[in-house]
Amino acid sequence: MITTSAELRAVFVSKTNQSIYIISIVHLFELLCLLMDIMPSLGKALRELKNVCVQWRHRRLILRKYCQQGICLFFVNELKDSLTMEKAVYIHLVVPSSVKLLIEESVLSSRKRIQCCGNSAGVRNIVLLGNDLILACACTIGRNQNMFLVIPAINQLKSPFALLKSGKVSTEREQTLNRRAIMPCASPRLYFCWSLYSKESSDKGSYLEGQFPHETNLILVIILLSHFTLRCFQNSNISPVTIFRGDLELSPRVKIKVWVYKKTSEEKFPTLKKYSDKAPSTDKFATHEIKVDYEYKMADDPVKVVPPEQRIKGYRYGPQVVPISSAELEAIKFKPEKSVKLLGFTSVSNILRHYYMKDVSIFIAEPGNREATLAVSALVKAMKKMNKVAILRCVWRQGQGNVVVGVLTPNESNQENIPDSFYFNVLPFAEDVREFQFRSFSGLPASCQPNQQQEEASDKLVMMLDLAQPEKPEDLRPDFTPNPVLERFHHVLELKSKKPDSDVPSLDKTLKRIIEPDPKLLLQNKAVIDEFCKLFDVKENPKIKKSTRRLWTKPSSDGDGKNAEVSLNDHGVPSFNCEGKPIVSQIGDKTPVEDFKAMMARRDGVEWVNKAMKEMKSFIYDLVENSYEGDAYCKALDCLIALRKGCIVEQEPKQFNDFLRQLCKFCQENDLASFCKFLVSKQIMLIPKTEAIDSDVMEEDAINFLVKTEPATL
Amino acid sequence: MKTRRTDSIRTGSTEKKWWCFSSTLRLRCSALSTRGSGDQHEESHFHVAIDCISKSLKTQIIGRSNDEVAICFFNTREKKNLQDLNGVFVFNVVEREHLDRPTARLIKEFDCIEETFMHSIGSVHGIIAGSRENSLYNALWVGQALLRKGSAKTTDKRMLIFTNEDNPFGSVKGAAKTDMIRTTLQRAKDAQELGISIELLPLSRPDEEFNLSIFYADLLGLEGEDITQYIPSVGEKLEDMKGQLRKLMFKKRKIRRITFSIVNGISIELNTYALLRPTVPGSITWLDSVTNLPLKAERSFICADTGALVQEPPKRFYPYKGKNIMFTTEELSKIKRVSTGHIRLLGFKPLSCLKDYHNLRPATFVYPSDEEIVGSTCIFIALYRSMLRLERFALAFYGSSSHPQMVALVAQDEITDSSGQVEPPGMHMIYLPYSDDIRHVEELHMDTNAATPRASDDQIGKATALMKRIDLKDFSVCQFANPALQRHYAVLQALALDEDEMPEVSDETLPDEQGMARPGVVNALEEFKICVYGENYDYEASTKTESDASKKRKAAAETAAMECAHYDWAELCEGGKLTGLTIVELKYYLNAHNLPLTGKKEVLINRIMNHIGKA
């Protein structure tokens, strides 16, 4: 099968139109199946998804350098029966096809063929298909199997699920399908993406959250499909290894068999090897590595080198150093027996959150051991009910040099087929606590005490800048937030592999959401924020010499209620805009034309005009590309007119003319010729010389441009 | 007996601290061993004082070895002090100033001072009627002179007085007495004005309580109620000094000053502190085992291709797609620098969003400061109170250059008890993991066929009963000493002081066996067990589910043991014929004797030879 075949890429594209798109990425130890609905409603997200896939692949290349991987792209259609599909799938899986298609290209090329299609009857079948796909490879692959179903939570989905609900599921055939296809998967995670574009979602959510995972044995994760959340696909999936297998001793007589794994473990920035340029450039086999060698020399006699066996460890004791040989050290070392023992239970309030010292482990009952699972479950539920935690003393391995005292907290599983478990956090020892005293806040002078008004303003701020609003999935959940440094490293790595002297780019726009507050959230709560700023006053201490590096600003507020806006740009330098308008630094979905005008009007930097034009152009592209039966054409037209006007004012006719030409070309290539027609009907033309002196277009050409191009598209 | 001990000084700038004990002895002390009926300690006062000083020295040398100490006795027969005053003896050892850091030798010799004391120092009646000598005055004078070093602002200077004589001028009468009292009090006052705090550790006689009001209340400046409260607090202090945990002490020091940008460019100033950090045995100094002199490590870079010695190269590389991708160190730091070195507010979330597994490292404590930005504290307190009230934490991005990370700022209310502040008010910065750092382990062993078994209400009830039985009521996080660390310190002390036997350090982290054996607890455990496992559950039998790997390992060990018996290893070893064997054969031996199997052939042979040699 696919075990040793080199890069395996295959593409299967059906002729007819369907809205399901599957990408499955396969390699030796891992299998990922992406099931994507690319209905127009997913629109923008699709491009993001494409990026994610590309980056995912890069990541894989980095993490598992020695693994071969393949990517199969499927553009699936007519899922009357998953079995027939299966064949197609298998055929293309086993044959290391010579069809070379990278994701980027294929996503774009397939886009051309996609027409909107309201019927997505195959969602469930698609899941089955994904499973078949995974199964097909599972015999050789083994562990990590993931399936991602990316569907927008909009009305169309109701029908297939309603169909399932109405009893048709229970036909025998469906049941067998269910069992056969879905169950053997070891641990499929199903991500159900909550599209940004859907407003209401409660009713279909209920099915997806309730019965669906139960029927299919999948883990359902609902994520907000915005910018970077899809990056959670990139989870590195390190094969987990237990750190302990054995008894959790409640007492010498009562024990529970448990396995302990790491739940969190920091993924560090990779260590890079030092490069040596000493090897001649002709040497193909040069490793270019550098070895680091340590030599120990007498402090007062730098010539004499002491061999390793003559060295002895010394520890400070007061001003002296006491030598202890490693044999001595070994003989007297503290050597506890391997065991995990209960010390007792205590109330949750005795363990403050900040006592947690390290990364977290998870205790699960020994798999397959029914009694142990029951015992763990009973304790978890009792702990939850009583608000208790357990204190444990752990020695994970025989020969471990120390004991670990930690706290066991309950982790009640909300899914039926996942057993209850415990989280384990290490607690500090008496030696680790530093007893520093701090002044009590109530004892501070009155100038440091907020008054009632200020407290109210701060209450409001805390309530309004809410990242976990009840009707939306939680924003910036650690579980779905990628590490921006690693992301950037991978990005640079890829860039450099193509062009060795490329510079480090500035942080990706989507990643900025992790390091900066969401401008939308700030804008929504502008009133609250302004109130807060008005009530609190910060001043630089005049006695301290001003250090230019410090980043802080004081919002100056004047009598007539106009607050001077202060914002920080990328370099941490405050920028002022005293016109009393909010600063617009990008074009939003709501008021693109206004945003554009505001940006063009900004006078605090030359780059804003160019930025505004650039953003406007890409915004128009998005509108046109994502429009469904021309619903966004009007909006796009408004934007186009605004852009045209802006270009005339700024004497940049070429910018607009080139853009319009490109746009038309794009539309014709992508089955969007209707937009060109629309433009003609609205009499949009290029900017002629009469309107802007720099233009190289004659008036006549300008008018006829669209008319001329049109026949070509028909 | 009367002992006196002066004390501790600290310099902030150099991080130097001094301790200075001075103790004195009066003649009567030897006769005054406390064999009273009510007293269970059959120790003399002198012994108690010596023991206490010795123990606290041993703690101090580990905990704050930069503190400096002097010990002086007063009411002594011999005299030894710079001022050449009568009745005062400063105890010291060679290679050490009078006031200096404690050394192993000081502790060692001080430990055996009781044996030699009468002979080498001797004690006399303190102030003899008619004589003009005032040994307490002299001692204060010497102590003050010793503590001259270091400025009062930056050092913490203390003088501890151990004594069992509540009426030092009892034997003197008339004008001489008033005069002596006056001069002594003046002396003490002068010392206190110089920034030296004087503490008294009185040792009561069994038949009479140490009466502070006769003299010492005036010396210490105690008034009214303070006097009655002083004695009990001293008892605690004394116990504390003896039973102190060997623990590294840290001076309160901020890690870093950071700017917290809240909204709209409003930024406040915060100081960060490390309140919780794992303590490790001190750093290792490599020594030459022949001379015991310290060694210096030297690093050199060698090119793996040519073997040439090179300078530290400016470039790094990372293999990717079969190529070596080059990075300069500047580029790498640029990649890591995703944000300015400040902390930026992203929003707020309810505390329930902070899960137990959202943790990577010990938290950092933040406390506001108005030093550079006036008004910081006010904003901080307002937010802090709102967060406490609304049960929310702040999500922020901390863009430190080495470790940019998302953090949760959790407000912590101040907690105090009778002994003072337990939890300071402020916020704790908890480092959150990224999606890259979280593993979904629980899904690995998902039951694919059916729902997993869940505990019944009865079982939960039994577990609840169990929890009520084994309840650590006033559990405090730092009640356990680190047994490995304490062992290390004890060993270090034993080696440094040439103690004959290795000390036994008790492991406080073991479960309370007596408590667990209480019938109530045993019953609750038993009921839980029966409820979950059933009556006749064979615990061991159920766990015979060995993994394939362990089966394989066992099988390998068995065959190895069998094969191993076919060779005469001792002979092979002596004859140097081990090299003639194959690695597989060598591994039979290693496997059969439970030795590591890794390494090259040479290493394996060495390992076998070592093992046979030992046997």
UniProtKB/TrEMBL annotation, chain A:
Localization per record: Nucleus
Predominant location: nucleus
Ku domain span: 303-444
GO terms under biological process: DNA recombination; double-strand break repair via nonhomologous end joining; telomere maintenance
Keyword vocabulary terms for this entry: ATP-binding, DNA damage, DNA recombination, DNA repair, DNA-binding, Helicase, Hydrolase, Membrane, Nucleotide-binding, Nucleus, Transmembrane, Transmembrane helix
Signal peptide positions on this chain: none
InterPro entries for the chain: DNA_bd_Ku70/Ku80, Ku80, Ku_C, Ku_C_sf, Ku_PK_bind, SPOC-like_C_dom_sf
Cellular component, GO, one term: Ku70:Ku80 complex
Entry similarity comment: Belongs to the ku80 family.
Name under which the protein is recorded: Ku domain-containing protein
Organism: Stephania japonica
UniProtKB/TrEMBL annotation, chain B:
GO CC terms, sorted: Ku70:Ku80 complex
SMART domains associated with the record: Ku78 (SM00559)
Keyword annotations from UniProtKB, A to Z: ATP-binding, DNA damage, DNA recombination, DNA repair, DNA-binding, Helicase, Hydrolase, Nucleotide-binding, Nucleus
Entries under CDD domains matching the protein: KU70, vWA_ku
A single BP term in Gene Ontology: telomere maintenance
Any Pfam family: Ku
InterPro entries cross-referenced by the UniProt entry: DNA_bd_Ku70/Ku80 (IPR006164), Ku70 (IPR006165), Ku70_bridge/pillars_dom_sf (IPR027388), KU70_core_dom (IPR047087), Ku_C (IPR005160), Ku_N (IPR005161), SAP_dom (IPR003034), SAP_dom_sf (IPR036361)
Entry keyword annotation includes Zinc: no
GO MF annotation list: ATP binding; damaged DNA binding; DNA helicase activity; double-stranded DNA binding; hydrolase activity; telomeric DNA binding
Broad class of the protein's primary localization: nucleus
Subcellular locations according to the entry: Nucleus
Limits of the SAP domain: 578-612
Membership in a protein family: Belongs to the ku70 family.
Name assigned to this protein: SAP domain-containing protein
Native organism: Stephania japonica
